[in-house]
TrEMBL record:
Record keyword Secreted present: no
Predominant subcellular localization, coarse grouping: periplasm
Name of the protein in question: Cytochrome c4
Signal peptide as annotated in the record: 1-18
Pfam family, one: Cytochrom_C
Subcellular location(s) of the protein: Periplasm
Keywords, comma-separated and alphabetical: Electron transport, Heme, Iron, Metal-binding, Periplasm, Signal, Transport
Lineage: superkingdom: Bacteria
Listed InterPro entries: Cyt_c-like_dom (IPR009056), Cyt_c-like_dom_sf (IPR036909), Cytochrome_c4-like (IPR024167), Cytochrome_c_Oxidase_Subunit (IPR050597)
PANTHER family, alphabetized: CBB3-TYPE CYTOCHROME C OXIDASE SUBUNIT FIXP, CYTOCHROME C4
């Protein structure tokens, strides 16, 4: 019975976070501008575009950055820059920021023609011989992911950022993925495949 109460309490708390306040989030996002841009569309390729991302996903990442700080890196998502940003955030702050950035339109991006031959088969079908699941199974045909399942939108994202994350997953430098799904896929990809996939998702929208 106590476990059920705890589960329902956590669900209720998570729902409250997910709602957020867009106007409050806009004010709190002032410190995010330097890396993520005035409108959530990072111009510097190594940083992610936050505009249009699922609010729940953004909340989870912020919570994971903070968890990495409080657990000395044993849990969560370690990042030197984001550690300082997330450490002082409350659950309400995270929800507000998630609501704000998810309300913004993501800027346009394209898929270079020269990466399609390598990336499209992997994205759509995976590689059964190597045990690589198709990216489309979680991120969808247009790269929009699903909020309820916790899969992020990757369409339109900066290629350099995607490449850095796939490399981090490959070497388990990033390990906050559900059931190690990204790590199990990325570890089987070579450098050319990671580079191609990173560029390919830009134009899926």
């Amino acid at each position: 019975m106590k476990k059920l109460v705890l589960i329902f309490t956590l669900m209720a708390s998570y729902s409250a976070w997910a709602q957020g306040d867009i106007d409050a989030g806009k004010l709190k996002a002032a410190t995010c501008v330097a890396c993520h841009g005035n409108d959530g569309n990072a111009i510097i390729g190594q940083y992610p575009k936050l505009a249009g991302q699922h609010a729940d996903y953004l909340v989870k990442q912020l919570a994971d950055y903070k968890l990495a700080v409080t657990s000395s890196g044993a849990q969560g998502r370690s990042n030197a820059i984001m550690a300082g940003m997330a450490a002082a955030l409350s659950a309400t702050d995270m929800a507000d920021l998630g609501a704000y950035f998810s309300s913004l339109p993501i800027s346009g991006n394209t898929t270079p023609e020269n990466v399609i031959a390598i990336a499209e088969p992997l994205y759509r079908f995976g590689d059964s011989d190597r045990g690589i699941a198709a990216c489309i199974s979680c991120h969808g045909p247009r790269g929009n992911g699903t909020s309820l399942s916790g899969f992020p939108k990757i369409s339109g994202q900066n290629a350099q950022y995607i490449q850095l994350q796939l490399q981090a997953f490959r070497f388990s430098a990033r390990n906050n993925d559900l059931n190690a799904m990204m790590r199990s896929a990325a570890v089987k990809l070579n450098d050319n495949e990671i580079e191609a996939l990173s560029a390919y998702v830009g134009g899926l929208h």
